[in-house]
């Protein structure tokens, strides 16, 4: 290392020590807050998608099981969405006002399906969506930095796991 480079390294080290690593701490805090904010956006968008698809299931489902599961999706995801929105608002974190574009596209495509065709597509989508949701909420419940969001994820996770099990047990199209 050349003498000027060595001096710069020493000065930089002294700066970090003198500031208590404040720059590093600020960056870490921003990352932690960003992860929680990303969770809020993703979870709220996913919840809106489940409500939309659940509503379609009550209207287009062929089996009573699909219609009942659709109603459960509307009820449970509306309640969870309202709770998440209240938490996010108290922390000035934005929530999604609509599903992710890919989910909105699937909902639009499913709106034209009825009966057995709808049931089959709905079951497949619900299983895939709830697998993603379980992963998202599991990550937040173990790695979240905001205590209130972490508690929300932990509390909601068993319901999402139950939804996944219910979706997997929906009757297959005959």
From TrEMBL:
N-terminal signal peptide: 1-26
Give the species this sequence originates from: Luteibacter yeojuensis
PANTHER family from the xrefs?
A: BLR2558 PROTEIN
Outline the extent of the DUF4142 domain.
35-170
Pfam families in the record:
DUF4142 (PF13628)
Its name, as the record gives it, is DUF4142 domain-containing protein
InterPro entries in alphabetical order: DUF4142, Ferritin-like
The UniProt transmembrane annotation reads none
Recite the UniProt keywords alphabetically.
Answer: Signal
* Entry-linked Gene3D superfamilies: 1.20.1260.10
């Amino acid at each position: 290392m050349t003498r000027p480079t060595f001096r710069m390294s020493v000065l930089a080290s002294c700066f970090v020590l003198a500031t208590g690593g404040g720059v590093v701490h600020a960056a870490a805090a921003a990352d932690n807050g960003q992860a929680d904010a990303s969770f809020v956006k993703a979870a709220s968008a996913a919840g809106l998608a489940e409500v939309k698809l659940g509503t379609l299931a009550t209207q287009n489902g062929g089996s009573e099981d699909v219609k009942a599961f659709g109603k459960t999706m509307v009820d449970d995801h509306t309640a969870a969405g309202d709770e998440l929105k209240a938490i996010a608002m108290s922390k000035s974190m934005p929530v999604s006002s609509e599903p992710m574009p890919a989910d909105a596209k699937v909902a639009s495509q499913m709106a034209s399906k009825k009966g057995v065709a709808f049931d089959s597509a709905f079951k497949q989508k619900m299983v895939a969506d709830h697998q993603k949701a379980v992963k998202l909420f599991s990550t937040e419940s173990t790695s979240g930095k905001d205590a209130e969001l972490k508690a929300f994820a932990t509390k909601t996770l068993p319901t999402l796991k139950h939804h996944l099990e219910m979706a997997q047990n929906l009757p297959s199209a005959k």
